[in-house]
Structures are given as C-alpha cells and as structure tokens.
Design a protein that fits this description.
The chain is an alpha+beta fold. The protein is built from 11 helices and 18 strands. Helix 2 crosses helix 3. The protein binds adenosine-5'-diphosphate.
Length: 370
C-alpha cells in the first residue's frame, strides 16, 4: 500500500466504469464504485459498495470514502450531486455542468450560440406546422429511446398526450454523424481526440471509424474547436462527447454526454491515452495525456446481444483469423440488442478494417459461421 494515491469514486458500475479499472490500476489510483448489484459489469472486478444512487444518504456515505466523485451515467439526480457538493466533496463534472447533460432543453438553450438544430419546448402541438420533425424527451433517453421522428400534427399530439412536455427539433437531413471526445481538467487544460464517425442503425451505434473518413480537414479542425469551446463554456471537468451532424459544410450539435462514451472506445488501443485514463487524469486534475493515434485508422464495432449466448467460443475462430482484433467484453447477460462488448481493430485501410470488424460482429451474432 502507498497512502499517497487518491481514491476516485464512480457512481455506477456498468461497462464504462469497468473500462476505467485497468487505467486506474496502472496509475495506482484507488477506485471505488457505487454499484446497484454485485454482478454489475464493473462490480465483478473492482471494489464497490452496493446502494441506490437516487438515495442522498447512501451516496453521501459512499462519497465520504472518496477524494473525488464522478459518474458513468446521467441518471444520478441533480439533487444528489448538489448534496455531495454541499458536503464539501468534489464532484466532477459538477452540478452546474452536469445539468446540461441531464436536461436536453437546458442544453439546447445553453448552446444557442453554437450551431444546433432549431428547437422549441412544447406541451401542445398547436401552431406546429413543419413536418417531419424530431421530438425528444427532455431527459432520460439513450440509444434512440426517447427520440421520435414525427410526420404529422396528429402524431405529435398523440406523443404529447403520452409523454407530456417534449423538445422538438428541426429535422436535419445530415450526411453522417460524428462525435468529438474532449477532456478538460479543473486547471482548464483540454484536449480532443480525432473526430469519429458513428454509424447508427435504428438509433443504436453499431460501428465507429476514427478519424472520420468523410470529414474534410477543415471541418475536422472546426469540429474539434467547437468541442473545446463547448467544454470551456460549460466548464466541464472530465471527458465529454459532443455528438454532431454533418451536412455538407455545416455542423450541428446534437447531444452532449459528460462521461466516457461509446464513440471513443477505440481510444483504448487506438490512442496513446484512452478516454478512460484521460477521464481519471482530468477529474484528479493531473496533466492530460497525449491523444495522438497509435495507427492511421481505428475501427470499433459494438457487440450486440443476439440468440448466441456463448461469447467465449467465438474467440477461437476470430483470434486465429485476425490476431489484430482486440476484444472488450462487459460480462453482462446477453439480451437481444444489448451492448455486451466491443471489438477494436487498428490499421491503415478503412475498407479492410470495416470489413474485418463487421465479420467479427456477424460471427459473434451467429450470422456467419466461418
Ligand atoms: P440518444 O443519444 O438519447 O439516443 P439522440 O439525440 O442522439 O438521442 O438521437 C438519436 C438519433 O436520432 C441520432 O443519432 C440521429 O440519428 C437522430 N436524430 C436526433 N436528432 C435529430 C435531428 N434534429 N434531425 C435528424 N435526426 C436526428
């Protein structure tokens, strides 16, 4: 033991916390997780306490064991985060920044000086004449849940009668979607990684390609500057994903996620410093690491649950076929459509990497057997 190393508390023990475990161990940083159950993805491999993140006294008791507290999801009530702050314990990002990842209407208002889709918060369809449009629940959505494409006033009225207040947005016919991961420390040091194209199917990200191959150099620089400016504006501490739509030469900010994000899982092998290590460095106010890529291209494929349950056996074929594939399993129960792991592959050719990663995904889901 060496008592000089700090303890970082993470609220949540899913795969994002799990992927912080390796970097924390390398740096000698103590991790303590607030898990819901002992078989949560990260709780299987790291120190944890079990408790409800909605309960102020549970979270306070947990936070008192930590030098700094962070979280891996946006579901922690703002009141709980404020209670930790009131107890004098550092929460990163803090409540003033966190609110923007929890409440889509606050986020849209705060980002009004940045290029975003036109938006409105409504409780009635009266006066809304331009369709199609995108409607979003104000909070709690993920993986396309809580996002609806609305084609008529009737549909909008029906949705409002079911969910109440919604955020509506101009429907952007974008060419493709990208995400920029940015990290910022309390000192104000900030860095980004290469912009990443995210391929979505039915609202779920299935694959990412970094650097985004269809993005011009000029737009790439612009997108990174945008992410750094937003991080500075919100005084975010830790990592944050800025999801953007690209349409021609225009960028539109779609969403923010103030935590490690699926779009930057490639950084585990594809960058000198992964998003998980960088998040730990940032919340501890350590100098940030290099975000240079370790190869020209990095492709990540999400392993989604299918009818195939044995996720170990596919290693035999896939590891033999391609020794470059890097697997990251979250050890979650396999359920159809659930993100249960991902695979990374580095190289020089986008086409070849995408093909190989797609083959690995198809093999694991049982769609191909050789
Ligand atoms: P979540 O991250 O909660 O799943 P998003 O806000 O990212 O929700 O929306 C999910 C998907 O819906 C996006 O990836 C995009 O494909 C589509 N989408 C969201 N907003 C718009 C918009 N204004 N115009 C067109 N498509 C949109």
């Amino acid at each position: 033991m060496n008592e000089f190393f700090p303890s970082v508390g993470i609220i949540g023990a899913g795969q994002l916390a799990r992927m912080c475990v390796g970097p924390a161990a390398d740096l000698g940083i103590n991790l303590l997780l607030l898990a819901q159950q002992s078989d949560d993805s990260a709780a299987q491999i790291a120190n944890h306490v079990i408790g409800d993140y909605n309960d102020v006294s549970t979270v306070l008791e947990f936070a008192k064991k930590c030098d700094v507290v962070t979280f891996e999801h946006e579901l922690v009530p703002l009141s709980v985060i404020k209670a930790i702050e009131a107890a004098g314990i550092a929460v990163r990002p803090n409540s003033a920044a966190f609110v923007y990842s929890q409440d889509k209407s606050e986020m849209r208002q705060k980002l009004s000086r940045f290029p975003t889709p036109e938006f409105q918060v409504i409780t009635s369809a009266a006066g809304i004449e331009k369709y199609p449009l995108i409607a979003k629940s104000i909070s709690g959505g993920y993986d396309g849940r809580g996002v609806w494409k609305i084609t008529s006033k009737e549909e909008l009225s029906k949705l409002i009668s079911e969910v109440g207040k919604v955020l509506i947005e101009e429907f952007i016919e974008f060419d493709f979607e990208i995400a920029i991961m940015v990290a910022r420390s309390p000192h104000g040091q900030a860095s980004t990684w290469a912009p990443t194209e995210t391929v979505q199917v039915d609202g779920i990200c299935t694959m990412t390609i970094a650097p985004a191959p269809r993005l011009s150099e000029e737009l790439s620089a612009k997108a990174q500057k945008l992410a750094l400016d937003i991080a500075q504006e919100l005084k975010i501490v830790g990592v944050m994903a800025v999801e953007l739509f690209v349409k021609g030469e225009q960028l539109f900010v779609n969403e923010l996620a103030m935590r490690p994000h699926n779009s930057a899982h490639w950084t585990i092998e594809g960058s000198v410093t992964s998003q998980f290590e960088q998040h730990l460095r940032a919340v501890l106010d350590l100098p940030l690491g290099s975000t240079s890529m370790t190869s020209p291209v990095a492709v990540m494929g999400n392993i989604l649950g299918s009818s195939k349950i044995d996720m170990y056996r596919p290693y035999l074929h896939l590891m033999a076929r391609n020794p470059g594939l890097k697997f990251h399993h979250y050890k979650k129960d396999v359920r159809p459509g659930r993100k249960i792991g991902h695979v990374n592959l580095l190289g020089a050719s986008v086409v070849e990497l995408v093909q190989e990663v797609q083959h690995a995904l198809d093999y694991m889901s049982g769609e191909v057997d050789e």
